[in-house]
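Example 3.2
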Amino acid sequence: MTWAKRTAVQLSCLLLILSNLVAQEQIQIGLAETDITPPIGFPMAGYFHERLAEGEVDPLKAKCIVFRSETQQAALVVCDLIAASADFSIEVKRLASEQTGIPASNIIVSATHSHTAPDYTKSMYAYLRSPAGAAPANETAAFRSKYIALLIEHTVAAIVKASTNAKPAKLESGWAEQQTPVAFNRRFVQKDGSVRTWVGLEHSGSVRSAGPIDPEIGMLLVRDDAGEPVGLVSNFALHLDTLSGQKWSADYPYYIAQSVQKALGPDVVSLFGTGCCGDINHVNPRGTERNKTDFIGNSLGETITTGLSHLSAIEDTHLEVRSGTVQLPIEESTKEDVEKAVKIMAAAKAGEAVDFTDHVTAHKKLLIDQVRNKPRFASPEDATLALL
């Protein structure tokens, strides 16, 4: 089967280029943040069973940076969410573009992948597809729809405020290396040649970690025309699943923000973007204890703030914005895969002990069946097992 014929998903990619290879032009930058914390009782994302939030550890935010030149403008908004669904992203970009004039194709809506954030996608789907003026089906639907409206409104507001705040700015960029171990590869090569997740190096079949980590923290410091810091964009590859529980939390980026604001000022916006971390988490495969959320965030924050003095000024700036589509193939979900997945998901729903990896795989295979297979192998009733 050729690449073009494979079932694929499309990812819109935006490239912001700040280059010193062309003539200088004045760059304006604005930053802003808004609160997107859900109410207590809203479903939480991150795992494979329903959890209703019972409280808040720290607030969830939508944080935005807007770049503007004489000919171009673009925005990046990062939300403390498990993911930025297509429905959510399209709606936010549409509304933000109408209110700011920034082309929708020049707006990135991203998520940190916090596992103590809301499971909002089904409610978002229902909210956006309900007829105008239609009353929610019940009290639960009304409760969840109210938050969905707030999530959209406040995320758009972050972009609008950042656009309004855009002023001439000076930029410094660079990176720092995280020396204190906080990130570890959670995949392990086995003696039989297979690769397993979570088993650790102490497992009798484990030979070595399946891959490296990335210790670099990328940084972009924004100063106003007077040289005062107004924002810091940082990036590090580590899964945001260090807290667990049933309380809202932005996870370790919250503590990074605290460190940044302590060093640079309470009004500085700390915008953190998660790096490629599907195989990377906070569990030391040779240790018996997991690093805590505050330890991780404070350690990364210390590395960032210590590294600020080593950043290099970008003397000549030029803003270009490009967007494109990347096609990614979706793996198969055979009839046998689906039948096995239904049994595993049914057992998990009944409270039986299920291997974590098997549970994850079963959930994935049922979802793929809904997207890829026509006709679907799972019955409508069995398909609901994949819905949290």
